[in-house]
Structures are given as C-alpha cells and as structure tokens.
Amino acid sequence: MTASGNPRAIESASAVADMLRDHRYLPDEGLATAVFLALRLERPLLLEGEPGVGKTEVARVLADWVGGPFLRLQCYEGIDAAQAVYEWDYARQLLHLRTAEATGRAAQLVDADNVLEDELYDERFLVRRPLLQALATAEGPPPVLLIDEIDRADDEFEAFLLEMLADYSVTVPEIGTFRAETPPIVVVTSNRTRDVHDALKRRCLYHWVTHPDVARERDIILLRAP
C-alpha cells in the first residue's frame, strides 16, 4: 500500500514495478506503466496476450498488495447476468412463501399492496455474483475484480460489461440500482481467440503482454524460486 493507504495514490510507474517485484511478479516497463495509469485514472485494465504470459497473475498480485477482496469472473460462451451479476435464491423464496402460507400470513400479505412480493424480492434472497460483489463493497480497501478471458464470452455480454464499467453500477429491477461508492480495481484479460470490441478497448487502459525474453525469464525464475 502507499503511504497514504490509497493504492490509487501511488506516485509512479517505477513504484508500481517495485510493488509488483515485492510480490514476486517481474513486470516490464510497459506493463508497470499500464497498471500505474489504470490505478491513477480509475479505469479498467485490459490485458491481452497468449495464454501463460502472466495476465491473470497481475490481478492476484494487485489483490495481495491492496488487501481487498479478490473477485474472479471466469468468462465462457453463453455467460449471462445470472452467472455474472446476480440471481434469486428460489429455494429460500419458496420456503419463505410456504412458511407464510402455513402461518396464514400469505392471504393477508397478498391483500396488503403486494407486501408478500416485496418480501420475496428482498436483498436477503439475492445471490450476489462477482460483478455485483465488486460494486457492493463500501468500506476498507477496494476489491480487485478479475474478468478473465473476456474473448470467450459473446458480444451481448461484452456490451453489458461495457455498460456496467461506464459508471460502475448495476440495476436489479426488483430492488433498484447498486452503485459502487469506491470503484473496484478491474483487470480484464483476453487470449485473443477473437477480437475484443474497440468500444471496450477505449473504455480500458490497454496493454499487450508479451512472452519474456531469455534474460527476463531467467530473472523471473530467480525471483520466484524458493
């Protein structure tokens, strides 16, 4: 953490590089600069590159450094809001409904301006997935949200993600809008199995992660060797 206790107040790319090295990650100058700018500008960081070059590890190291929750959303073909944002705990809702019926409350509540429906769609029955969890942290260090392999998701989900990252908010129709008091630190990765849309690239700080050369690979092994 920085002297001020705020990771976004870090002063330079070289300070970011030192932090990453302290956590056994050896960045090149370009990656350290991209992380620095993403933190200072409070923008998501989009890392593209071939599998195995260390994109995911950047998010893990940031979470260790910041001390906030590490939230990972693994993307795949067909992913939607139920897996990424939220869903309702239907089993608990049904149990609540059956309990109301058994105690005779159901008929009373149905007549009372849909109070029963309001009870069923209460936050206690809301299952928060990684995107919503990242917006709901109000105190302490910001969470680090890893959106892994966005290239495996479809265009619709990418469009939804772009909208969410625009103002760090998500609307649950039955409850209202959840908006982050402090924006999460967001790392998006892509193996480039397909092109990520330009709109998402513009929203993020973009960096292409390359394989290390022989000298740097040796340094990485020495840094991580026990």
Give the low-pLDDT segments: none
Order of helices and strands: HHEHEHEHHHEHEHEEEHEH
Q: Looking across the biggest beta sheet, what order are the strands in?
A: 2-5-8-1-9
Classification by helices and strands: alpha/beta
Portion of residues within helices: 40-55%
- What is the 3D shape? elongated
How many domains is the backbone divided into?
2
> What amount of the residues lies in strands?
15-25%
| CATH homology superfamily name of the largest domain | P-loop containing nucleotide triphosphate hydrolases
Could you walk me through the main structural features you see in this protein, from its secondary elements to its overall organization?
By secondary structure, this protein is α/β, with parallel strands linked by helices. The protein folds into 2 domains: 7-85 and 129-224, Rossmann fold (3-Layer(aba) Sandwich); 86-128, no CATH class. 44% of the residues lie in helices and 17% in strands. It contains 11 helices and 9 strands. The strands form 3 sheets. Strands 2-5-8-1-9 form a 5-stranded parallel sheet. A two-stranded antiparallel ribbon has the order 3-4. Helix 1 crosses helix 2 (29-41). The two termini are 24 Å apart.
Structure, briefly:
The chain is of the alpha/beta class.
Index terms:
single chain, 226 residues, alpha/beta, Rossmann fold, 2 domains, 5-stranded parallel beta sheet, 11 helices, 9 strands, 44% helix, 17% strand
